[in-house]
Amino acid sequence: MKFTMVSLVLSLRKAEEAIAFSGINYFWGQMGAGKSSIARLIDYCLGGDFQLSPALQAEFLSATLTLELEQSVLTIERQRDSRNVLASWTRNDGPYSVVLPARVASGEVVPETGIETLSDLIFFLSGVNPPRVRKSKIKEDSKAVRLTVRDLLWFCYLDQDHIDSSFFHLEESAEFYLRLKSRDVIRYVIGYHDERVADLEAELDQLRANRTARVSSIDSLTKALVEVGIGSEEEIGQREAALAAAIATADQNIRASRNAPRDAETLHAIDRLKAQSRNLGNAVAKIDADADELRTTRERHLRHRNEIEMLGLKFRRSAEAREILGDLKFLDCPRCAQQLPPHAPSCCEVCGQEDLLDLADPAEVAALEVDIASRRAELAGAMAAIDANLARMSAEKRRIVQSKDRMEAELNRALAEQDSAFLSMALLKERERASLEAELHSIKWLLRLPQLLQQQREALAEIVAREEATRQALKEVRAKAEADRTSLNRLASYFLDCLVRADVPGITCDDRLELEPPSFYPEIYGADPADLTASTFTSLSSGGKKTLFKCCFAIAIHRIATELNAPLPELLIIDSPMKNISERENRDQFEGFYKMVYELKASELSSTQIMLIDKEFFAPPPGLSVSATSRHMQPDSSEHQPLIRYYRGK
């Protein structure tokens, strides 16, 4: 992935400092001159954290890094103590300038691009889709998260503070989440996380989101049907048939009343409404009584379940205590420390009662656990059924109360109008029929809800099936990708080659290097197969060896990334590769390492920009078609100026 630094400009209180970059940049000199601060400021512009040195605390205002990416030149400006950056770039459709988060996303910044952070912008301008990996490697339904440029930079920027203390978070002592992220980067670089795997993971993530949405919709529809007192399409059909029959009966009654003789004795509507209102009130009272009884039963079930769990807990504690104390032989009383009197062999040595230790038999404990679980499930099912009945009763009560309210409204109207018995009954029957027709119409509308619910369930079943098929396909594709060890073996061979060429003590070309997934933590064994002693980053006793070990692995990662054209930034910053090594006492390692770097820059890593920071300068050997831009830096020096040229401090 093309990633070339063009320049770094520091805005200071009294001046600006500009640093231009070339293919190889070598900063060297005395401590305190600001060599490491250059690398840290680059990392700061790319979203990293930065602890300011005393000089920068006094003078630093902002930093501007210019990068050349695949599709554009990007300028990143970050103010001191800011969480955001100002990014500017130019494309065919014109110049762009936007403020966006350096690391933590807060929503899409550039519309219809998916750009939320600086990392997204760099991938976007590089023409690379941000790689997605599973957040959890244990849960199959774990959502996919994006790897960021910050994750890739672990293998591009080896900072001085951690160059000899952490091996890219791959060691067992590293934080678990960081270790998984680092493994994902290696998988991504060597091709284990290929395009097909990425596509399937993205598809699986979308299916999970769709499944969650469908489940939420089904729950909402089910709750709505329960609230209106309808649980299924069959129940709606029964209500519809009952209402149709009631309407037919009402029509028959209306026709009968119209054909009846005028002088026939007719019940007044007021009396009928009062009777119906009383009946509805009695129905509400009965529902309340039944609901109270159900609630009492539920509380009894709940107490019973809690008692069972408590008794089970006491039994388990007692069994565990007996198992722990069963083999102890008490000579003195554990309470008063006096010598215990003799007891029969079958009795407890402390209390003298018959020993019941055999009650803690494992088979009996297991049977009890099964019985407790079964009884708990029965009570949970009973309480769930009671909750469902209470919900239905509550819906029925609301319906009856609404009917009662309508009856009382009709009663008030009849009392106010004082119509004749015949007219009042005729009007009442017409209104009842109209009410029944309105309810029937609403019932027909409600019929769509169970149908929609069934459609949602069918869609959910289809999504679950597709999700399972996609998960299986992903498993097969991932296994196929990891079965091809060509890239991994090449990485191991490159790593061993770097170690030998850097003249790391104790490592030869005949050694055997193992680099196994899923840990990708390198182990080096001697040429003798019987020698099982492994050299790892953790086991290396020398800080100098650890530094070279880590630097060589980073270089090997860039070699395999170049060979596979993997989307790893073509940038390698190594801050103090000789941190724990003397250039005079360990001349072979000093010369061997830098000679290897120059040789690789002249061949395999010709497109990779390299920045080296160290105490001493080693020039490229004669004959190599490579040159290094060096800058000698000393604090308080006018000849070999420090990072802040005018600053003279402690």
Count the beta strands.
Answer: 16
* CATH class bucket of one domain: Alpha Beta
Shape: extended
Give the percentage of residues in beta strands: 5-15%
Strand order of the largest sheet: 2-1-4-5-6-7
Helix/strand/pairing class, anyone?
alpha/beta
Biggest sheet details: 6 strands, antiparallel
- Cα(first) to Cα(last) distance is 41 Å
Word description of this protein:
This protein is α/β, with parallel strands linked by helices and 650 residues long. Helix content is 51%, strand content 13%. The chain has helices at 35-45, 54-59, 118-126, 149-152, 176-190, 195-227, 233-259, 269-325, 362-417, 421-446, 448-483, 486-501, 543-564, 587-601; strands spanning 4-12, 16-20, 24-29, 60-68, 73-79, 84-91, 94-101, 132-134, 144-146, 157-158, 512-514, 523-525, 534-535, 571-575, 609-614, 629-633. The strands form four sheets. Strands 2-1-4-5-6-7 form a six-stranded antiparallel β-sheet. The chain has a five-stranded parallel β-sheet with strand order 10-14-15-3-16, with helices on both faces. It has a three-stranded antiparallel β-sheet with strand order 11-12-13, covered by helices on one side. A hairpin with a 4-residue loop joins strand 5 (73-79) and strand 6. The longest helix has 57 residues, at 269-325. The protein is extended. The two termini are 41 Å apart. The mean pLDDT is 83.
